[in-house]
Design goal:
It is a single chain. By secondary structure, the protein is of the alpha/beta class. It has helices spanning 16-26, 37-50, 62-73, 87-90, 115-122, 150-162, 174-180, 187-192, 224-230, 239-248, 254-275, 295-302, 330-341; strands at 4-5, 55-59, 78-83, 103-106, 132-139, 166-170, 197-201, 211-215, 279-280, 288-289, 291-293, 305-306, 308-309, 318-323. The strands form three sheets. It has a seven-stranded mixed beta sheet with strand order 2-8-7-6-5-3-4, with helices on both faces. α1 packs across α10, α2 packs parallel to α10 (239-248) and α11 (254-275) runs parallel beside α13. The longest helix is centred in the last third of the chain and has 22 residues, at 254-275. The protein is globular and about 60 Å long. The structure holds pyridoxal-5'-phosphate (PLP). The site of pyridoxal-5'-phosphate has 9 residues, from α3.
Amino acid sequence: VSKYLFFDDYSEGAHPEILKAINEANAGQQRGYGGDEYCQLAAERIVAELGVSADIHFISGGTQANIVGMSALLRPHHGVIAVASAHIAQHEAGGIEATGHKIIAINSPDGKLTPELVDQGMATHYDEHTVKPRVVFVSQATELGTVYTRQELTTVVDHAHQKGLLVYLDGARLAEACAAMSPATTLADIAQTGVDILYIGGTKNGGLFGEAIAVINAGLREDFRYLMKQRGALMAKARVMGAQFARFFDEDRLWYQLGRVANDNARTLTDGLIAAGYEFVVPTETNQLFPRLPVQTVVRLEKEFGFYRWDSGREDPATIRLVCSWATSAEEIRRFVEATAREVVS
Ligand SMILES: Cc1ncc(COP(=O)(O)O)c(C=O)c1O
């Protein structure tokens, strides 16, 4: 019997509507490297959604988006301020550092940066003997599934700009963040916070693959495609991504809907585990959950389900990470909750 996977939000393939859009875009000839009509349409729709002028580029995945994005923002002696738990700091095999840029990692209990934490990053710099911070890297939602409120995000962006820093937003799970933010939040609200570059996640939100980078700051747009090309990120058959993002931001705005469904699934699972008496290391705000369960229970669950342990492996209770998606089965959520509550038979 195969295990049901709560590892991440890309255990499934693409949403059927996305696959249909790719299939429809398959016929006929198109220009390569983003010059096709699907990428053009997707870019127009995203710009309309953002409500500000921006250059839009399509990139295959989040790590690549981050590497290309940083290359547009940093000169050789520049560093990037990020929380220590950020994806670029923890889970990208040193991708940014491999391009010669230091990540100035700052501890944050909830995965968010604040003006004070940005200042901590700034305080590591004195003169030309130290790396010069140039970028503030925020993730929305964060690596812990938490979400900046609009006010918090605006405050960090304003503070960064006051200090002469640029802001890059990793939006791998931006749809889930928009769904969780209150009042109802759109990409236009995110753009209004003043971020310089952001990427709009597709892979984790029902896309087959792909992220859309929006370069909002006009001063950063020049030669962006050269930076992509040098990093192997300018895809010849880019229509595959254009078709997906044109569909995401078609009239029904599927992209927002799928983020909401993922969060709703995570809410159901969270509520079930709370009712079963379990605690969480951070409250569930989006589609990632971090409950603490007795190691004995975790070992038993691992036989039926796939998920990550999220601590050193020595703690009891152990922290695990569960991720729901637009496609998570209600039945499997029920089965998981039931399994946590089951009597241990040894
Ligand atoms: C916040 C965040 N950024 C970036 C990435 C990297 O994406 P990819 O695996 O597509 O390179 C991930 C993937 O898990 C992520 O969670």
